[in-house]
Write the structure tokens for this entry.
Amino acid sequence: MLAVFIKEFSSFFSSLVAYIAIGVFLVMTGLFLWVFPESSILDNGYATLDSLFAVVPYLFMFLIPAITMRSLAEERKDGTFELLATRPLSDFQIIGGKFVACLSVIVFTLMLTIIYYFTVRTLSVPSGEVDSGAIAGSYIGLVLLGASFISIGIFASSVSKNQIVSFSLAVFLCFFSFSGFDSLSTLISLQAVDAFVSSLGISEHYQSLGRGVIDSRDVLYFLSFSALFLTLTKTVLGGRKW
Amino acid sequence: MSIIVKDLTKVYGEQKAIDSISFSANKGEILGFLGPNGAGKSTTMKILSCFIPQTSGVAEVNGFNVASQPMEVRRHLGYLPEHNPLYLDMYVKESLGFIADIHKVERKQSRIAEIIEMVGLGREQNKKVGQLSKGYRQRLGIAQALIHDPAVLILDEPTSGLDPAQLVGLRALIRELGKTKTIIFSTHIMQEAEVLCDRAVIIHEGKIVCDSVLSDLLTDHPGLRLEEVFLKLISSGV
């Protein structure tokens, strides 16, 4: 698994994929946080990173599928999957190596945004008065959210040999699992069970972590979400009807 | 016995890709696996390398069952898939290092140097895989199959698309390897089998039509060249 991880990780950084994804991410968050007046911290006047944590899930919705779309689709298209699968590696080791490699890229990207935290801390009056607990909780939420989106992306990549199909499917699934359940729960006919329906979605658990309370139910939700999609991926690969 | 195949069958939907075939290969033998395109050669090799499961029947590699002990089989097997898939954006040494890491090869660097020397990639070793010509890619594919020093080698059409000089070099390499390892290689070119292997299994439409030592084939069909024997066998369909 370590070998697959190293190979995947270095392939992100030896091609343009990682640089473009990280660059786009940083430019977008920078614009939203400091330039666009509607979400700008400077115009807002409060020393919080709320607008960062509100916008990142929507950026991840596009960037993570862009990172994951090639992971299995390309291997299958080029036939290199046969190279991996006939080595002493279980399917799960292959999937796991890829998952951890993508997650490392995401964690690395998020680490770069910590500079925003220090900026806000410095700018606040009196200096240093920011809700660090809530921010830490939100970062943990983002890593878990990233893991869930990556597992969706890898699953979508296993379904088709075509990267565009994988990308589109992953964006749809990410969007639906993030905010789809919330929106569904407002349907009149579902109002009796609205709390249950919205608790199926990522958004509710992400916001709950963002309040700075690490609830084991939320963590468990994210972990089982990733596990579900990685298991689905393994099932798809195990079929090998191609 | 390094390879034992017994009543192996693979069904794709309605179609039988291979139909209860049986053969075996002894230790240190080079076995040619011959047949026209679409005869079931690659399917058999994919089953032997644990890439796809068989529908029924038994296959063993180096004493390990492909269905129940796939990890052991993969550890003892070097497999060159058809069309030789490679990671084109890796460097030659990097790709060998990757495979060596998967197999947890000891003394990785010296093993890589040794294998590069063995397959004759010395001059190309600092290039990217995508920059290599077809012949060198094929050598790299074989190097990847050999890096963990497997007892059994399965090469699916190792010489397809090579120019005559490369062909001679690669055949010499396979013959050299065959002194210590069991090798199954597939081809649809009869002359190749003639220069390379001791024994040939000829497969046609999923069935084995002939399994014999090459010299016996010639004595059984006096006056015919090997190629004519091959054509006769696959047209009669036995």
